[in-house]
Amino acid sequence: MYTPVTDAEFTTVSFLEISSSYLLRLLSATPRRLYDISEIPPTPITHLSDTETAMQETVSKFAKEVILPKVRDMDEAENMDPALVEQLFEQGFMGVEIPEEYGGTGANFTSAIIAIEELARVDPSVSVMVDVHNTLVNTAITKWGTNQLKKKFLPRLATDTVGSFCLSEPVSGSDAFKLATKATETSDGFKISGGKMWITNAMESGFFIVFANLDPSKGYRGITAFIVEKGTKGFEIAKKEKKLGIKASSTCVLSFDDVEIPKENLLGERGQGYKYAIGILNEGRIGIAAQMTGLALGAWENAVNYVWNDRKQFGQFVGEFQGMQHQIAQSYTEIAAARALVYNAARKKEAGEDFVRDAAMAKLFASQVAGRVSGLAVEWMGGMGFVREGLAEKFWRDSKIGAIYEGTSNIQLNTIAKLLQKDYTTSG
Ligand SMILES: Cc1cc2nc3c(=O)[nH]c(=O)nc-3n(C[C@H](O)[C@H](O)[C@H](O)COP(=O)(O)OP(=O)(O)OC[C@H]3O[C@@H](n4cnc5c(N)ncnc54)[C@H](O)[C@@H]3O)c2cc1C
């Protein structure tokens, strides 16, 4: 039985506690439809379940009270505050979909998407940490891990160990399956040699999912997923990148010098790594789209607060000039459209429907909206938008990454066009 949670309770318990004590798990994270919806009247796409609303409110409160005061300093220092990472675990935000039996929150995919969006509204760097950990790393272990791997790693991923997803390399970005990192089988496990590039969370991570080719004679069909733990001999972080945006999120070059791992650290089946990576990145794109939607809203809110409540010129608030109001209204409309694409893609995934085109459209559009709106928001604030005292310029810098990672905008367009052409091509 669902018991409403009061504001007072929100202040004293984490989402993890709320979830396990009070809330029903209304939707399953498994992709197949498990319930009959024929009798349920269609609802607005942005309608949230009680669990999802609780997640939204908890994350929003945490982001404003705990993250916001740290955002500027973390960006300047290009560093994620370790105390904040601990709090993200304590709140249950790092194990959103991990089943409760493994110490996770046991919520659904849309809850994870909502958490990512709410975090990005305040700090897109924290948002991407949570996004990669939940939508790529946790999901990969939940989907393809053996029972032994799940028992060993899911409780850690839910409570204290950050994860990274290592696919990209110096030679393989958009053409991800041209990767050169190799794995060889040994008497008691595997040996990995090569290098990875652009790996999010690497400085904070204790756990790395690494894609390597176990049988290069088979081309991309040799790609296999492995688990490498921090501290394994021969594995090191070779470089931490200095970036334009999301500076508090670590992005690193990794090197693997004959790194030996036990045979249990094979993730899933040999040669299936390319399928796993495609599948998981299709889902992950909805997370990046949510990040970009949250970022756009955060930039918009930050600016309208200034132009409607603070800054006056010619005797009135600058946001009251029609030339400003129209831009503000247009921007909010675009954010709402991006959010509709994001939630629709998430709902389709949960319903077990084909969501690949929807995810690509959501990521493409949300990143465009984030760039446009955060850029305009700087202009609406005049000089105050350009200085590093506030967050306007940071949102704009952070927005650029949306068109690059988890498939560039061109790659999303390729996917959308390919799927459309399939639907609209007459056979024969
Ligand atoms: C901050 C950051 C974090 C990241 N985190 C991770 C991570 O955690 N794990 C991970 O594995 N990777 C990660 N990446 C890598 C990211 O996914 C790649 O950067 C991205 O896929 C693009 O690859 P690339 O940088 O090599 O660009 P390239 O593939 O070299 O692309 C360069 C340009 O060519 C265009 N292009 C390429 N191919 C085509 C085509 N077929 N049609 C049209 N245009 C094309 C692209 O759109 C782009 O404009 C991260 C990257 C960054 C910058």
TrEMBL record:
Entry's Gene Ontology BP terms: carboxylic acid catabolic process; fatty acid metabolic process
Domain of life: Eukaryota
Entry GO MF terms: flavin adenine dinucleotide binding; short-chain 2-methyl fatty acyl-CoA dehydrogenase activity
InterPro entries on file: Acyl-CoA_DH_CS, Acyl-CoA_Oxase/DH_mid-dom, Acyl-CoA_Oxase/DH_mid-dom_sf, AcylCo_DH-like_C, AcylCo_DH/oxidase_C, AcylCoA_DH/ox_N, AcylCoA_DH/ox_N_sf, AcylCoA_DH/oxidase_NM_dom_sf
Main location: mitochondrion
Cell compartments where the protein resides: Mitochondrion matrix
Annotated ranges, domain Acyl-CoA dehydrogenase/oxidase N-terminal: 49-159
Keyword terms: Acetylation, FAD, Fatty acid metabolism, Flavoprotein, Lipid metabolism, Mitochondrion, Oxidoreductase, Phosphoprotein, Transit peptide
Residue span(s) of domain Acyl-CoA oxidase/dehydrogenase middle: 164-259
Domain (Acyl-CoA dehydrogenase/oxidase C-terminal) ranges: 271-418
Name of the protein in its database record: Short/branched chain specific acyl-CoA dehydrogenase, mitochondrial
Assembly and binders: Homotetramer.
EC category name: oxidoreductase
Catalytic reaction list: 2-methylpropanoyl-CoA + oxidized [electron-transfer flavoprotein] + H(+) = 2-methylpropenoyl-CoA + reduced [electron-transfer flavoprotein]; 2-methylbutanoyl-CoA + oxidized [electron-transfer flavoprotein] + H(+) = (2E)-2-methylbut-2-enoyl-CoA + reduced [electron-transfer flavoprotein]; valproyl-CoA + oxidized [electron-transfer flavoprotein] + H(+) = (2E)-2-propylpent-2-enoyl-CoA + reduced [electron-transfer flavoprotein]; butanoyl-CoA + oxidized [electron-transfer flavoprotein] + H(+) = (2E)-butenoyl-CoA + reduced [electron-transfer flavoprotein]
Taxonomic classification: Eukaryota, Fungi, Dikarya, Ascomycota, Pezizomycotina
EC nos: 1.3.8.5
Pathway where it operates: Amino-acid degradation; L-isoleucine degradation; Lipid metabolism; mitochondrial fatty acid beta-oxidation
Pfam families: Acyl-CoA_dh_1, Acyl-CoA_dh_M, Acyl-CoA_dh_N
Coiled-coil intervals: none
Family: Belongs to the acyl-CoA dehydrogenase family.
